[in-house]
Target: Glycoside hydrolase family 42 N-terminal domain-containing protein
Amino acid sequence: MKYLYGIVMLIFLTACSTKAPHGQFLKEFNTGYAGYAWEFKNNENQSIWQSSISLVLDGHIDSHVKDVDYDAFEKLQDSIDDSKFIVMWFTKNWQEFYFNPELIQRAMDKGKIPVFLYWYFGDDFAVDNPTEVISKKHRAYMKMNQRIMKFLNKLNGEVVLLLEPEFNKQHVLKNKENSELFKAMMEYSLDYFRANAAKDLKLYLGLSMNDNGSKYKDEPFDLCGYEHCALGDKYTWNKSVDILKSLSSRLDVVAFSLMLSPFSRGSENPNIPQDYKNEKLGIGFLPQRIANLSQYLYEQLQKPVFLSHLVMASGAWEDTNQNQKIENSEVAANGWNQEIYETYANFDYGLFQKSGMFGLALMNLFDNPKHDMGGYNYFLQNEHHLGLISTGADAESLQPNDGRLRFKTYNGVDLIDLIYRD
Model:
């Protein structure tokens, strides 16, 4: 442990600081979409990648996508054309050839802003003893920082880099040693990126926490700080804010994520699924809750706020045979569309902006049969129903999507149009 801190502090002390940028986009409110490119399959059922940037800028639709529906792709282009932010992920398995810097630069020259979520440690902080795990990986992490910095320095203009999205795992918040380790790693990374950003790269640095507070409407918990906890949970939020405050001088922005599903792995026994009633998830109060969390973060940190990845899974589950197991026949793929509709239809972007937010982005545009393949699958079958667009692909097939885009609807309205508005 002392060795790890020594490495971190050595690099920290040799870093030189530069002045943080301040862009006009921080004073506005804009939307974003996720994905540098989207995976589909061709007629041979092999993976093929449709560039989101080429679709938005040029209207280019890859004709090799299996069963491609050109009209649907054109509607998608129209929907996201005015989006400001293109959200992409750096993970520990990221390779330079995943992203074409020239193509990203073209988007930047047209006024788009790349937002990179740097998810390296991820669930390593969710294990019982993250100190041991992190200690083994810190050298590889530092090398990864160097690779990412080299890539970002190929870009000219404004770029947002958010470190360790969903960092506020319980093992980080509850254990002082783990918390100090996390802060030390973030101090090093933030200082490294600040000091080594090229002159033409206007880099905005931040961290992104998850809203993991109570959302229960019928819980008038005084410490939540609101009439009821569906409107917000300051008691829980503040545990993450304490970490953000310690890093505040190094941050240009702060961000949070909101991810909801009507069922997931159980908190007590992950092998027994948990089914949530709407009042447990704060349905009916989420737009105001988002504004409240943004305002709380802004007041506490005095930094512009971004909703970095928003998702409401569309699948609903009813345990018809009462065996406490989810069978595919019990999942209605669009059973939660009404809740999504009623939430997104009540988004007030003017209120969000007044609350300190400069934008939001969806985590997924598409349902993805391969999402979290081999991972923890916290949302179980709903890992395959995280988007606002489905395709003809079988949700359980583990095969890429085909080109038959099906926009999820409720009450005759395409849900995607509630996010990407005129």
Summary: The chain has one domain: 2-14+25-419. The chain is about 30% helix and 20% strand. The CA atoms of residues 370 and 398 lie 5 Å apart. The longest strand covers residues 201-210.
